[in-house]
Amino acid sequence: MVSTLAKRLYRLKKQILEICILLILTLSFLVANNCFGANLKYIRVLIFKDVSSLNVRIDGFYEVRDIKHQTLYRGKNLSATITVSRGKISMGKAIFNNDRLIIRADDPQVVMVNGKKFRGDICLVRSNSLLKAVNYIELEDYVKGVLIHEASHYWPLEALKALAVVCRSFALYQAEERSSQDYDLSSDIYSQVYGGKSGERYRLNQAVDSTKSQVLVYKGKVLPAFHHATCGGATEDAAILWNIDILPLKGVVCGFCQDSPHFNWHLVLNRAEVRKKLSDGGYKTQDIQDIVILSKTNSGRVKDMSIVFASGNLNISAKDFRNTIGPNSIRSANFKLRFEGEDIVFEGIGWGHGVGFCQWGAYFMAKEDYNFHQILEHYYPGSKIEIRS
Ligand SMILES: [Zn+2]
Fold first, then answer.
1. Once rounded to an integer, what is the mean pLDDT over residues 361-374?
2. What's the mean per-residue pLDDT of the chain?
3. Buried-exposed string 281-315: b where 16+ CB fall within 10 A, e elsewhere
4. How far is the CA of 152 from the centre of ligand 1 (A)?
5. Rounded to the nearest whole angstrom, what is the distance from the C-alpha of residue 344 to the centroid of ligand 1?
6. Distance between Cα 290 and ligand 1 center (Å)
7. How far, in Å, is the centroid of ligand 1 from the Cα of 350?
8. pLDDT at position 153, please?
9. What spacing in Å lies between the alpha carbon of 253 and ligand 1's midpoint?
10. pLDDT, average across residues 116-133
11. CB of 222 within 8 A of CB of 216?
12. Gap between the Cα atoms of 6 and 365, Å rounded
């Protein structure tokens, strides 16, 4: 009798144990699948801004959806000009009442917009009679489309891997900062130059894949991983340019970019050209008599300057001066200037704002066999690499 009861109890315990194991396995499966879906990171990149029309082509099946991903139309082989007609988005013969539309090609198709290939979805945003096109793209694919504009695919792999981590971190930081806006990044030099799938190369993709999901963090937060072409000797403190004052962006001595092709720059503008640029930038101007450098930053870059007119002067930061004249003309804030008659001769060092990662410095570090961890530690001291997938 006792033996039978013991056997029954044993069987009951075994059944409970089996049910528990089954429950745990089921829950693990659900959590794993949920995480997979929830953790895919998407970036919203502005690819065309305020245009009156867009040419879109898809070979294969596609859907037009509203912003809640409800299907409005499903078709095959799209080749249409998209415009705004009487306040509505028209796509070929179809007219949509929605101000925002998502065009999604069936995987793994690629969408062509104005002749460029893009992975992911295209979101059209109408404002009045103009359109914005925003590419919704998975983070890793975005980084693959960016690297070609930041470096050559012939660069040493460790430099490319460092750059992949930098671009991924910068994009993720922007996505967190701009979640309430229509897009996270623009595709020009003011964010990161993005060329869609057309910009991908085998070795660049290799650098992205081998650092998949790795991002720079500081004190638990994704680092705004600013980067530039060539620092010219020392990187700049981000606090000088923006309201960001953290250890990894305080500036370091670079020591590696002196052989960069962008180390020195030279620009000649005449007084009238500088005056016109300032005037176009919204500043009140007169004939320019002189330009005086008022202060410099610890890294040696110009901080504040004064444009001297016949009566009065304009005090302006070097950052604003550079942006007004053109950041690819005045390539850096590290410059001297002199007047030669009507000409103003600028001689400068480096290319870019100078904050964070010096790309040509990274190139020469990799040439000297530093790995991508060491390169990133050099340019962003105190930061760490974490997996954010
Ligand atoms: Zn440098």
1. 98
2. 88
3. eeeebeebeebeeeeebebebbbbbebebeeebbe
4. 17
5. 27
6. 31
7. 8
8. 86
9. 8
10. 91
11. yes
12. 72
